Amino acid sequence: MSDIKNATTADTAPTPDDALRTADVAQKKGPVLAADGKPLKKSLNRALRLQKMRALALIAPLLIFVLVTFIAPIADMLFRSVENEIVSETLPKTTAALARWDAKGDTIPDETIFEALYDDMFFAQESKLHTRLGSRLNYEQTGVSSLFRKSGRRVEDMGEVYQDQFEDFDDFWKTGENWNSIMGSDEWLAEMQAWNANPDDRQPRFVLRKGIEDVLPATTESYERFAEFVQVKDEDNLLKEDPWAIVYSSLYADLTRADTAAISAYNGPAAAQIKAAAVAAAGFETVNLSEAFFDIDKDWGDIDVWRTIKIYSPKFTNGYFLNAIDMQKSIDGPEMRPENERIYGILFWRTMVMSVSITLSCILLGYPVAWILANLPTRSANLLLILVLLPFWTSLLVRTSAWKVMLQQQGVINDTLVWLGLVANDDRLVLINNQTGTIIAMTHILLPFMILPLYSVMQTIQPTYLRAAKSLGATNWTAFWRVYFPQSIPGIGAGSILVFILAIGYYITPEIVGGTSGTFISNRIAYHISSSLNWGLGAALGAILLAAVLLLYYAYDKIVGIDNVKLG
Amino acid sequence: MKLTKTLLASTALTVAATGAVFAQDSKSPVAGMEMANEMTIVSWGGAYQESQLKAYVEPYLEMNPDVKVVWDESSGEGVAGMRAQSEANNVTWDLVDATAADTMRLCDEGLAMEIDHDEVLAPAPDGTPASEDFGDEMLVSDCFIPQIAYSYTFGYRTDVADWNGNAPTKICDVFDLENFPGKRSLEKRPHNNMEWALMCDGVAQEDIYDMLETDEGQQQAFDKLETIRDQTVWWTSGAEAPQLLADKEVVFGSAYNGRLFSLIEEQNQPIAMMWDAQSYDLDGWVIPEGLDEPTLNRVKDFLWFATDTQRLADQAAYISYGPARKSSAALVGKHAVLGIDMAPHMPTNPDNATNSFVQNYTWWADYRDDLDAKFQAWLVN
Fold it and tell me: Which of B211, B216, B194, B218 has the alpha carbon at shortest distance from B277?
């Protein structure tokens, strides 16, 4: 942080680039030349670059290791807090169509949007993506999960009305082979025949017949998606598969559109069947898609469902972050959540306050211990040090559970107090499943992180200073407070940072002894990662926590100065 | 050839005559296909995993000595684990034990394989197809292969002086601080607690979920819970409530019935069960999506055996959870160690199930996120 300053002032050991700086200063008086006549600065630079490369190569394994196993996964996880592609990927047409819909009005989308929804839902359910989107949107709007699950199950039947009518009208429409001959190019059909005779190789990918998309645009699109699904996802033989119901709905839409010129001009394969079907289709029974969707679930008529889809259409969202600070996205922009759903603000604040309390109690308890350790003869100090380190060698879970036995109302501490008569039997202290429990257990667990830096700093403080202060007339307190304590501050600083940052992310201990009032924000993060699967919100909460820690660290550096932190 | 036929016929006759497993001696549909010889099974650890090991994994390994089973006790993190593995494109779990609610989520997320129950699971000994033998109430998801029905039920201490010799018999006694004072322990999530609260606030059982969809209904449930909030210790892991009961920390506690069974029968604690308004939950297998062919065959072969009528009934000898097949009920015998009859300890036993309800999974799948946020906010404030 301040190495430039240090290097130019002479209060630290010389570093390899000192010479470079000296050369820099010297340059003002004209270039200094090396023995071989080149400017000194240049040759020094080259020598240094080699040295730096070597140093970099030495730390490269660690650097790469940290990048791959630590930074990259964290970045990937945090990225989820804004990523929202699932909506527009699963419902591409619907989200595009919803752009035109006025969400602030009080009418639900019109039939064209339901048509888009039908298309999207059909393909989504074939690849089983609709339920995934359902659970994603259910985080924002209760009920969407089952709405999508239900709709996916029944959307397949919706288009069957057209399929049945086409098939009843002409058997020609029943078989996939006839469809292929209309939609596929001649070369592809030939390749398919060859492959079909000897299906060991890879199936030739579907190639569209030239010009067909002008005649049957919607059908073309549906059929291409169908063909891709059959060939790529299911790896089935396209010649043997009959098209999905949605292909027939698209065909109906194509044949009944106002502009009939393209169809009457068509003279490709099965022209006669298509033209005959076009005539017949005019008299087909139709399906009102919005009605069909309402029939599946009346929630499709709920404007809030549509608003949610529209709000979460963009590829990136700040919704998770808003959620993480007790707000929500609404059609009028961000707003506070209802009172009875606000929780994260409280938890963030509580995490901070309790981590500070834990740090303070660690200082209070750790300081005297470290002082004794530093002032005892080495042999007894080592023994004591082992006692301090002992908890490190015990499982965290075991230590926490031990506190449970100690602190509970029928536990060791309460029993002792009752036996001593300090506490009435029917009025035992509540020491666990609340903040007290968390603070006690975590102070104990984190204490070594305070004692060790304090101890190593105190060891470097010369006892002669205290003696000198006293010999000059200072009282014990003044000698400690004015001479000893200031020298131990770097140890307090290091211990506090360690304890505070560890405490802020603690999870197991608050979960076990914290009850409802002693849990931290990390407990909610854990819940969202492992239970609700709302990883986006978990990532947003984590990102905020990380930002808060970095901010506090920055503030600490500004106020105390990170140079004043010493681990020994 | 003739000899084999005669042998087969006579075996069939004796088996049919003794009424033992007949149809299920048939080989699994994947028998003879190429199978992997290693299988990673994910379960809950503890007594439950032990019951699975004894009832069907060990017998299966005896029949297939080449197979190696690796246990992973990560079911508690099963949902997250399966998603992480699927996203990393590195599925290392081959068969996962999960609750019904988790399975629904996994199925929705496309992380679990959908199966045809009649194809993958053995029919009942009398030939009833698996889908009927399990029944619709068990097959709550296309991805779910049920093993057991367990229940959330209450245990209470039998030595509470303040109760003047009375013992609680009704769910509403949990909310009755006057006659049954003392601390209670409830699970720290809305499931069951909301239902019980409304049930004791005069709402008929069939109306509960309709009520909980409305703000007023939710408020009513919270208000009812508020009456005992000061006296409640909230648990998150299944071992907590039994421990709290045993330590006299609480006098009442909701817990998995199997944990209470072991507390009462195996550890002889002065604790009794109150079966009233027990809430059923299901636990079963899920197959992760994306297994390779040989592994999938091995898993299917194992499942065919491990979920047949006899094996599910055998499991009940090690733990007091009800087998998911109807046909297994009659075969439930005695506890393997204690030698006591297991039938009276089954949550599905008619005497225990007079006023029971089944958690509405589909409903909770919708309302879980919303209600959980409200529940946690209620707890925090």
Answer: B194
